[in-house]
Amino acid sequence: MKKSARNTPKDQTQPQDKTRRLLLKMMGLGAGITAAKPLPLSGKGLEEMSAWLGDEVNITLFRPDDLLELELKFTGFQKTPDSRGLRKTGSPNFLYVVFHPQSLVEQAFEEGSAAGEMNFTNKNDASVKGNEKASLSNEVMSFPAKTYLSGRSRLVFEIPANINSIPLTAAALLDWDRYKPVINRRAPAPKTTPVFNVDDINSGDFKNILIKDIKENGINIETKPVNNIRTNNPVNNDTLRRVQLNRNVRAATRDEQKVIENRELPPAAVRVTEQPGIKATIEKLRYGRTPRPVDADETSIEMPYRLFISPHEYAVWYHEHQLKLREDLQGTVLKTFELWHSRMTCKNCDDLKDHSGALNAMKTVRALWATDISGNYKEKPTRSNTFKTALYNDDRHCIVHESSNWALPNNFVPQPVQVTNLMLSTLGAWLDAEMLVKRDSLEKSGLLGSLNLLKWKHIATLARDHYVEVVYAGNMFPFGHEASLVRITERKPQQGYAVNRQRYFIVINEEEKKFNPYNSQNGSFNSFHFSTIRFVTTATPTIEPPHAFFAGLDDHQDDHQFIPVVSGKPFLFKLIGFDLDGNETDFEMPLVFITTDICYTTEGALNYTRLDALSKYYNKNIAGMCSVNFRNQNMALARSSTAGDTHFQVNTILFNAHTTQGEKPGFGPVCKELEIFISAVENITGKRTAQKVSLVDDEMNKAESARKNKGKVFAKLIGSQAVNFNGSGNKTGGSLSPNFSITGLSKSLGAIGGDVDKAMNAYFDPSSFFDSGAKLFGVIELGKIIKVASNAVAAINGESIQSPFPALKNTETKDAHITQYSWTAASLQPFDFGFVKFKPESGAAGKVQVETKLYRYKDPSKQNALVVQSHIDDFAVEVAGIAAIRFKRVGFNTGIGSKTDFTVDMADQPFRFLGALTFVNDLQRYIPADGFSDPPYLDITTSGIRAGYTLGLPDIQLGIFTLRNINLGAEVRLPFDGSPLSLRFNFCEKQQPFNLTVSALGGGGFFAVEFDMKGLRSLEAALEFGASVSLNLGVASGSVSIMGGIYFKMSVTDGVNSYELQGYVRVNGALSVLGLITVSVEFLLTLTAELTKVAGEDKVARVWGEASLKVKIEIFMFSKTVSMKVQKEFAGAGADPTFTMMISDRDWEQYCDSFAA
């Protein structure tokens, strides 16, 4: 043991430079004090002002065998004359035990996929899930690793008044049990509250000011002069003289040394003056409930680096007083001693040390100060990370304030640091400690905007950190679940080195979060159809070091807001969503982690400025990341009124974020855009196309009488989806093609068209609902012949069976899924389309009805079934002033187990020609009124329906006048492809003309007209005349006839008229011998002219003639026919000349030769 005693006033036990420390103290207190003279920057004089004026003894206790080295300072004591002990000379009496630096901070390196097992669990104490390993590579180590050494630490004890002397022996100097620890008032025992005085309460926050700040910012450091303060003013010394005296002292004997000190360095060289300064400089630093530097007369342990901790008043230290030899080496010449160390424990009610562990809960410390933090908890410092370390300045700021700031708002109780092991030694400290802070406590106190550290765990051995874990409170953006960012710095042996590796990962603390479709404060619609979002991934693997997500935010510290990245890609969190009907869907997507520094202001209020800026940036810049694939899962887009009325297959959802006024954490998700499949439309149209929709407020949070959305609309299409029945007329009855463009979705009406706002007000406007392709008979626009329904609430609410709204929706029963298109209460109105005029016979509702049901049975053994019932009643159609048609009903019915029935019931006077064709009206009396009700033939194909009626009339003979082969016919054609309904009436047919004979002369002909709802399609007629003679001689018979006639045809194709006029001569002759040999000859000569429009005028486009001869010979059972034909074409008037007509053979040859090689 080495002993020394020095009566110098200089305190050698301070852990940091005394001049700088005192200056910093002066800066903090000087903020509220005015002064007349500036404070000397050097600190000289302040040191003397604060120096102990009484006796003190400094002793270095050194024992090399077990590496014991302590600096001890006793105040109020002097050494005895024999230097074998200390005797008390005054009061107060303190012992200062100063240790060498106890902490060493080292550079850490990023850790990749070799991460160890994550031992962090969620708040339910369930093991974390989803923490599969990442493939991030380790950061390459660079040597030597950077290090910093802490300052010295001290234990301060008050020596009781009954102790007057202390032997200078190792046992006596290490016997601290008799002394009372001197502890800062901000370091009480657990579950106790310190008592503060008025000065503590009224003192302000300590501001840490560096010398460089004074020079750079011009901080005013003037202090107020105080009268009659006794201070030690140092006597001016000659530096060279002092060096010489020191040499003399070291070479002198003890008696000579005393003579030199008395003569050359009189310790009583003191003056009493009115020295400028501040009142109670040292004592002032002790006041305050907020963090500030620990006073030099109080216990302070710098462990870890830059963080000053202190035990409470019931803590005691136990250690060996004598050398402790290894038990197995006792009695041998080998000497191996245990490293001297002092271990912290607590004393029990008997004032004895606890070695049983019963008081382990009392083993706590508190972090009182750190050199690089602010005394104001709201002023969290910006992270200073010259190189990676286990703790940063912002970590220390939170640890100190959450541990020892007794002035935090709303009665927040600082949490102690639970210690498992704390030992001090010459080689450094052992520390195993953990501090836990509840998020709820910080939140209730309004501190999450400044202090959000939830956990600090620190394990160190011999001053070197082995495992350091810090956990910060945050939320997952945009859903808002509470989460924690965990940073672990752990020493791991790799490649022959044991460096500290640092890794990050995220833990979800709030696995399940409930959502309300409406804001609880203002009732606004949140546009979010999930009632619950649950995290399956409760912890990420090791993620790459965070980088700020939004660099433009005022707080862009890297780990305050970032997207977790694993292996270079955003990490996909696995989630489960429950919609408003309770249906479960799973999905995965990247999320943004934000700490509560972003969510809250330093005053504890939600920081809507930051959250709004962050939301806008998120919505604008990562649309690709927040568009989530839901893989066509079925979900409800709103709360259902009846089972399944809001359920759709969802392909993708584009999530956005928005601020939520008055609701924690200040933001929430929005379903901006959903890509869905509307199965009702698919089943009707036969096409599967995803549609983008946005959600609409269905006002389910209001009473029904107060709702403005009377149409129960819950979604609006972004764009529109055309429902085109032109390709599926067999599902609506063919005559009706109620095409419309879907613009919204309603609970009661299903898919709706037109103006969504009008539909929400129960207002049905056919002109906006139906598109131009919605036709009756392929030509009459439904939107113009259907009346407006201004109040259809009863139909929407289901109070009325009939509805003026066309409803397209899916329903579900226990047996089947049903796709239903229902339109049952539409009323007709007249409309003049110009070419076509529509005239209803009655304006009553229900004149138009369409009911289509497609059954998809749940039993796979049953086939799907289609049931259609549609009709339109009591109307008339006038076409181009040529004809008028009156209908009682046009209907179409099909169903399960019944035949397909197409019905056209015409009025009593069903058809009437107008204008130049009125002469045909006389034929109408031959057509029965119900001629098409149950027609003689009905031809149904995939392309449409043909229904017809043919009436044969008997021959008419009046004298020499004979009329034979008479028949009348009519046919209705209803295509399923959207083409117009067409009608055809005929008197005889081209292939079966009537015959008219008068004596030896005869003739014949036919007439047919066809038109649709757009107008006339074709008109054709033929008349022929001639004579015929026959001869029968018994053995041979023969006949000969010669006929001449004309044929006229007018046809309309795509609005273009074309005409054909034909004249012909036909000669027939036949000779039969005994019925065994027959020879017949037919000669036909025709001349045809084709008329078309040229330059807007009808002109003959071309004329061609054709002559044909056909000879047929029959001999018994054999026959042979020989035909010959010749045709000649002539150009018509006004027609364009052909290429051949314009270019002669000679000119063409010259043209070709000019391009020859």
Notes on the structure:
With 1157 residues, the protein is mainly beta. Among the domains are: 204 residues, no CATH class; 36 residues, no CATH class; 196 residues. Strands 8, 14, 15, 16, 17, 18, 19, 20, 21, 22, 23, 24, 27 and 32 form a 14-stranded mixed β-sheet that branches. Strands 51, 52, 53, 54, 55, 56, 57, 58, 59, 60, 61, 62, 63 and 64 form a 14-stranded antiparallel β-sheet that branches. Strand 53 and strand 54 form a beta hairpin. Helix 6 runs antiparallel to helix 7. The chain is elongated.
Taking the sheet with the most strands, its summary is: 14 strands, mixed
Count of helical regions = 19
Radius of gyration: 53 Å
- Proportion of helical residues: 10-25%
Query: What gap, in angstroms, lies between the N and C termini?
Result: 120 Å
Structural class: mainly beta
Overall mean pLDDT: 78
Low-pLDDT residue intervals, each spanning 5 or more residues: 1-52, 114-135, 219-235, 265-282, 726-735, 931-935
Question: What is the general shape?
Answer: elongated
Give the strand tally: 64
Strand content: 35-45%
Can you describe this structure in just a few lines?
With 1157 residues, the chain is mainly beta. Helices cover 12% and strands 42% of the residues. A hairpin with a 4-residue loop joins strand 2 and strand 3 (68-75).
Structural topology:
Layout: H1 18-29, E1 37-38, H2 46-50, E2 56-63, E3 68-75, E4 77-79, E5 85-88, E6 94-99, E7 104-106, E8 108-110, E9 147-149, E10 153-158, E11 165-167, H3 170-173, E12 180-181, H4 198-202, H5 211-217, E13 222-223, H6 239-251, H7 254-264, H8 281-286, E14 301-302, E15 307-311, E16 315-318, E17 341-346, E18 364-370, H9 393-404, E19 417-425, E20 430-436, H10 439-444, E21 453-461, E22 464-477, E23 482-494, E24 497-508, E25 512-514, E26 530-535, E27 561-562, E28 565-566, E29 569-570, E30 573-579, E31 584-589, E32 592-595, H11 596-599, H12 608-621, E33 627-636, E34 647-659, E35 667-677, H13 679-685, E36 690-695, E37 713-723, E38 736-737, E39 740-746, E40 750-753, H14 756-760, H15 766-769, E41 775-776, E42 780-781, H16 782-785, H17 793-796, E43 807-812, E44 816-827, E45 831-832, E46 836-840, E47 845-857, E48 865-879, E49 883-895, E50 898-913, E51 937-941, E52 944-953, E53 956-958, E54 961-964, E55 966-975, E56 982-987, E57 994-998, E58 1001-1012, E59 1015-1032, E60 1036-1053, E61 1056-1073, E62 1077-1094, E63 1097-1115, ...
Parallel strand pairs: 8-24
Antiparallel strand pairs: 1-13, 2-3, 3-6, 4-5, 5-11, 6-10, 7-9, 10-12, 14-15, 15-18, 16-17, 17-19, 18-19, 19-20, 20-21, 21-22, 22-23, 22-32, 23-24, 25-26, 26-30, 27-32, 28-29, 30-31, 33-34, 34-35, 35-36, 36-37, 37-39, 38-41, 39-40, 41-42, 43-44, 44-47, 45-46, 46-48, 47-48, 48-49, 49-50, 51-52, ...
Helix pairs in contact: 6-7
